[in-house]
Write a structure and sequence with these properties.
The protein contains 10 helices and 18 strands. A hairpin with a 3-residue loop joins strand 15 and strand 16. The chain is α/β, with parallel strands linked by helices and 375 residues long. The strands form 4 sheets. It has a 6-stranded mixed beta sheet, sandwiched between helices. A 5-stranded antiparallel beta sheet has the order 9-12-16-15-18, with no helix packed on it. It has a 5-stranded antiparallel beta sheet with strand order 13-10-11-17-14. It has 2 domains: 174 residues, P-loop containing nucleotide triphosphate hydrolases (Rossmann fold), CATH 3.40.50; 139 residues, no CATH class.
Length: 375
């Protein structure tokens, strides 16, 4: 078999054992071509951990990730599951409970700096606990944190100290949730990397995990980020990612709508108020994305004529690479307080007690659902 280096021998990382490749920096086993003459050769992720006390993120598809998770249940471990509060349902690993067995799960909820500053954090924490339970996940603790602002990490480390009890620590999460920042903080606080980076791989697993030695002889196990195609962040171009992923606190945009009015979120999505009394809707969308209001009867024509121009991003060129839109209709009961959640794009809060029929149009495959209001 020939590998990416053009030889018949299979080159593997001397740090973690993964097969090396020099073509995809965001995939396991990447090593820059200029590093191929080193002896021994280690992958970029091991190199950064060993030399800079810093982990970098790699990603694998769902099937590969589930194979990695299948080993955790048989280990004595603490599992840290890191999720993105902006994309909570999109970044929560469904079915995690059946893989972790009786091992405790610490849910680290990152990017809380994106929520409005007047947010009631106790209510957010309670909301997270309820939503985790609804998704079948039993958590030992919930910690709200911000990797960007370095908020909540002392609380997170305290919780790790209370729950670890000498166990290995597995860190799991989807792509773009801030997993590497968390790993790096754990490395600084728990690991002495003056020693050589050594990895004892568990039998039967692939070698896409990096085991970072701790001072007590146990390991932090850095797992690759799982790729969920149901998230907007996985289907847009790199240049459009900044338009949908906020980097500062959201400024809620409130719209008073009559029935049969429509909101476009750039060219990324569409929200129709199909039926109901005049009422307000609050959009928690990246403020860099322009919102356009129109009549429902004109919405199809507006999109056909102006997608990729007035309604952008995405650009006309990037539109060609995105799936066709599909329509999701929801009936919201009177007196309920609900969000219409669009994975990776944000959510729309229905403020009225009168009830409503609404519809959302997004590319096929993007997760859209109703949930109890976060805020």
């Amino acid at each position: 078999m020939t590998d990416n280096f053009g030889s018949s021998a299979v080159s593997k990382c001397s740090g973690c054992g993964i097969q090396l490749q020099s073509e995809q920096p965001d995939k396991p086993g990447f090593v820059p071509e200029q590093a191929l003459n080193r002896n021994p050769i280690i992958c970029q992720r091991c190199f950064r951990i060993k030399n800079y006390n810093e982990a970098s993120s790699v990603a694998v598809d769902q099937d590969e990730f589930l194979r990695l998770l299948s080993e955790i249940g048989s280990k004595d471990a603490l599992v840290i599951h890191i999720v993105d509060i902006f994309d909570f349902e999109g970044s929560l690993i469904s079915g995690l409970q059946r893989f972790v067995g009786s091992n405790p799960v610490l849910l680290a909820v990152n990017k809380i700096d994106l929520l409005p500053k007047v947010t009631n954090w106790n209510k957010v924490r309670n909301w997270v606990q309820k939503q985790a339970k609804e998704n079948g996940l039993k958590v030992a603790d919930v910690v709200l944190c911000s990797a960007k602002q370095n908020h909540g990490f002392d609380r997170l480390l305290d919780s790790v100290g209370e729950l670890r009890e000498g166990r290995d620590v597995y860190v799991v999460g989807a792509t773009n949730v801030g997993k590497s920042t968390l790993i790096n903080r754990l490395i600084r606080d728990y690991s002495d990397l003056e020693q050589e980076l050594t990895v004892s791989r568990y039998p039967g697993t692939t070698l896409d995990m990096v085991n970072i030695p701790l001072d007590d002889g146990r390991f932090i196990i850095d797992t690759p980020g799982i790729v969920y195609p149901s998230r907007y962040s996985e289907i847009v171009s790199r240049k459009d990612l900044a338009a949908i992923m906020p980097d500062r606190p959201l400024k809620p945009a409130v719209y008073q709508l009559n029935e049969e009015q429509t909101l476009f979120f750039g060219g990324m999505g569409r929200f129709d108020f199909v039926q109901g009394e005049r009422q307000s809707f609050t959009c928690f969308i990246n403020n860099a994305l322009k919102i356009h209001r129109t009549k429902l009867e004109r919405a199809d024509e507006l999109y056909a004529d102006h997608a990729g121009e007035l309604l952008s991003p995405p650009s006309k060129e990037d539109l060609e690479d995105m799936p066709e839109w599909t329509r999701h209709e929801f009936r919201i009961r009177k007196g309920s307080h609900m969000d219409v959640f669009i994975s990776g794009l944000g959510w729309i809060k229905v403020n009225s007690d009168a009830g409503a029929v609404i519809a959302v149009h997004v590319p096929k495959g993007i997760k859209v659902l109703l949930r109890p209001s976060l805020i």
